[in-house]
Specification:
By secondary structure, the protein is of the alpha+beta class. It is built from 4 helices and 4 strands, in the order ααββαββα. A 4-stranded antiparallel sheet has the order 1-2-4-3. Strand 1 and strand 2 form a beta hairpin. Helix 2 packs antiparallel against helix 3. It starts with 6 loop residues before the first helix and ends with a helix. The relative contact order is 0.19.
């Protein structure tokens, strides 16, 4: 995928469609939000071609990774102030995902997150 301003929207649409196809629709809203945040970060900070890979987990969830070809520039979790216009992406990933991390590849890096159906069910039932 090219690192263009339309990349986050294309990723959201593809992720939502895939999760509905896999009968994992309860994860769709959170997965599309977090995938959009990771793709936006890759577009803004790496500017290279990027790849979005979604895998089903045996536990009933997904792992989504966004890879780019830029070295370094590891994401950080920041808590921006109320007046800041940006900087909340990794904070959202940290708060809403079951887990997340980074890996180094031959041609750059990947930032990934996992979402589990059991975590979503617990959160919905807690209210």
């Amino acid at each position: 995928m090219r690192a263009t301003p339309s990349a986050p929207a294309r990723a959201r649409d593809a992720v939502r469609h895939l999760l509905i196809t896999w009968d994992l629709e309860p994860l769709a809203d959170t997965a599309t939000l977090l995938s959009s945040e990771l793709v936006t970060n890759a577009v803004r900070h790496a500017g290279t071609r990027l790849e979005v890979v979604v895998q089903q987990l045996p536990s009933g969830g997904i792992r989504l990774a966004v890879s780019d070809a830029a070295p370094g520039d590891w994401p950080r979790v920041n808590m921006p102030g109320a007046e800041d216009e940006g900087g909340r992406g990794m904070w959202l990933v940290d708060k809403l995902s079951s887990s997340w991390g980074t890996t180094t590849g031959r041609r750059g890096k990947s930032v990934w997150f996992e979402l589990h159906l059991d975590a979503i069910s617990i959160e919905e039932g807690a209210g």
